[in-house]
Amino acid sequence: MSARVLNGNEIRDQILDEVQQGVLELSARGVQVGLAAVLVGDNPASEIYVRNKIRACERVGIFSERITPGKDISTADLLAIIEELNYRKDIHGILVQLPLPTQIDESKVLLAVSPTKDVDGFHPVNVGALVTRQIGFAPCTPAGLIQILKRSNIRIAGKHAVILGRSNIVGKPAALLLLHENATVSICHSQTTDLAMMAREADILVVALGRPAMVTRDFIKPGAVVLDVGINRLQDAGEVKKIFSDDQKKLERFQEKGTVLVGDVHPSDVAEMASAYTPVPGGVGPLTIAMLLSNALEAARRSSEN
Ligand code: NDP
What we know:
Layout: E1 4-5, H1 8-28, E2 34-38, H2 44-60, E3 63-67, H3 75-87, E4 93-96, H4 106-112, H5 124-132, H6 140-151, E5 160-164, H7 171-180, E6 184-188, H8 195-199, E7 204-207, E8 225-228, E9 232-234, H9 237-243, H10 248-257, E10 260-262, H11 267-273, E11 276-277, H12 285-305
Parallel strand pairs: 1-11, 2-3, 2-4, 5-6, 5-7, 7-8, 8-11
Antiparallel strand pairs: 9-10
């Protein structure tokens, strides 16, 4: 039986349609949802991420403002910008695109964002709310993983979820969200003794390592559900040939463009072993922006109720 491909673009579209509806409802009550995106400097990848977020805002009718301080801005000046956004009534969500230039104290900046406007869910107050299951904002990529599972009717309660990776933005919050959904959760990292053996225990395997195609068939229990968070851009022809040896289309695309995207999970191995999996691209990635906008709508709802 061939594995089911969990299509992140379709799920993103469902969520964006719902967000658009919510934005319209708030607007009928006189509230225009507003999101500020702070993009420091000229990192090309960050520029693309912010552009995509702003486009998505336009699609659902969220007012967005792009704030672009120069790359040499000091921590104090950036804090002043955040402080002003915290007070603005027309801005319900603030996102600070990471990474920040090295002279900036990133943790101070993230701490300065009002927890009520912290739509990325990075503020320690929101991290605490996530741990203790109180009202807050969950980080977008892990929240997207839960949406993929729920909207694909994949049962979470009682399942063994194994998370490969323990970062603050993906691995740890994903583990907490799955725990709240009553999965039994294991978290693995670079000091885990036998990663493949642990991964093979998973009914639901979440992979957020940042290691191209590292998760091969020996990591996957037959019939597992595999969610691949990794996004890696490959440029090395040898590596591309090895990973995509049986995917002529990908190899042709690589010849044309000189780069190709791959997740942390080996694409043909997962298709062979899993019962369902997210592809890269078009799996987990599209959900991140959808959940950001969903959080922005929620921030506006909460502020309108106060
Ligand atoms: P980090 O680099 O912050 O964390 C990687 C984690 O993987 C760490 O916990 C690390 O362990 C663990 N790890 C790395 N190598 C190994 C190894 N060989 N064996 C065991 N564990 C290992 O990455 P992120 O969590 O930020 O991102 C992970 C991936 O997800 C990246 O490819 C990133 O691009 C992608 N991503 C995608 C998003 C999306 O929207 N789809 C959003 C965010 C990230 P240790 O803690 O011990 O060092």
